[in-house]
Amino acid sequence: MPLTQEDYDFLGIENLAGIAAVARALPHDATQSQPEPQLKPVPSRSVSVARKKAEARLAWIRVIKVFCVIAIVGTLFGAALNSYAKTAVARSVYETQTEQLEAAQRKRISLQTQIAQKYSLNAIRDYAENVLHMKPIEGGRMVYITANRTDKVLDITE
């Protein structure tokens, strides 16, 4: 807002040359008093409608924020549940394979025990004496076997 004559008088300009210079600097209508511009009153109805629209917009923004948070939490919950399911499946496979390995180890030990029992020297001696009716060789006794040097097979029947 430009300065008026009263503003310059307040500043204490007393010489006429200064006043004349100020008068030239002022617009011609500045010496007259100008009425203050008045603001137009806004109807209260339009203010309440605008306020309601702003509040409704803020309410929708809050609703959208809540849905976004729910979606994020749901996604995280789903990821955690999926991870738990994969861990449970892996644990089940591990336990099944561990049981199969233990069963195979037990069977191996059992088979080794059976082999050791069947092929022990005492078992062979028992089989020779009881089933084949063989007798052990006495200390000073020698047995000689004669064999033909031919490739013929002889059938000896008694």
Protein model, in words:
- The protein is mainly alpha-helical and 158 residues long.
- Among the domains are: 1-34, no CATH class; 65-136.
- It is built from four helices and no strands.
- It has helices at residues 5-11, 16-25, 44-118, 121-130.
- The radius of gyration is 60 Å and the shape is rod-shaped.
- The model has no long low-confidence stretch (mean pLDDT 78).
N-to-C SSE string, H for helix and E for strand: HHHH
Please give the alpha-carbon distance between the first and last residues. 152 Å
**Count of DSSP strands:** 0
Helix content: 55-70%
Overall shape: it is rod-shaped
Which structural class is indicated by helix and strand composition?
mainly alpha
Q: What portion of residues belong to β-strands?
A: under 5%
Number of helices: 4
The largest pleated sheet is described as: none
Unreliable spans? none
Cα Rg: 60 Å
Q: Taking all residues together, what is the mean pLDDT? A: 78
How do you describe this structure in short?
With 158 residues, this protein is mainly alpha-helical. 65% of the residues lie in helices and 0% in strands.
Keywords:
single chain, 158 residues, mainly alpha, 4 helices, 0% strand, rod-shaped
List the helices and strands and how they pair.
Elements: H1 5-11, H2 16-25, H3 44-118, H4 121-130
